[in-house]
């Protein structure tokens, strides 16, 4: 990998572990629960986070194993499985897998010669479409070796309930260094102890958690109602407009888009195809600036342009496509 990457620390010693705060919650949030259970009802909507890295050469296998083991100490969520409460009464609970095995989650394969980058992408596609074993921590990684030019490919797949995109970047950062030599005395944490949590136990934890949160929720509700009432007396029109604005925002979130969307994507299957289009960040920034937009604007415009050409190739004309935009809620 290039040594100029500003997102990769010089070594693991330079990692600020206090910044790796995700994965601390014992219980899934409502959003994470939705992502976890959605694929059971609609498998076509599976959306794992898949990161594909192209390496100039294959890393030492034992060092890679050690790096992932170390990362599982720093981020305990890596060692955790999701336990559904009895009858799904509540949100799933994260529990340390008593049978956690790095060798199950991290594998390697050597492609038969001749092998180019497209052959490696086919392996990535297979990994991306395999459903997770929900009795284990929902992530997997694969080192693909044997490319004709000496390069290697490292692909990591994580379930969206584990973390968001920013958390995924943090996790990948933990596995990298700009120094080729091993890092001694890097900061470490004691791995969490294995647990044997059952669905009944998960339900019990949910009940206890809700009881503990109830007083604070009631207090917040009372304070909120008092503040709204006071504001309504002093500025009734402002309060009414804020309430209506909130209601409209909520309606936009929970109401499905009015448009039918793409006829080509409506009945899509479980298969996926991977391809690459290389564009340098400086070139993309220059194009965005020329059009009066941001880097993100240019990226989204390129995606929509690709969808437009895809539909044209199949003789379909679509004026608009509903899309979801992930937004980082981190502070």
TrEMBL record:
Transmembrane segments: none
Alphabetized UniProt keyword annotations: Acyltransferase, Transferase
Chain residue ranges for the region called Disordered: 176-198
Keyword Acyltransferase: yes
Domain O-acyltransferase WSD1-like N-terminal: 35-299
GO biological process: triglyceride biosynthetic process
Keyword check for Acyltransferase: yes
Protein name as annotated: Acyltransferase
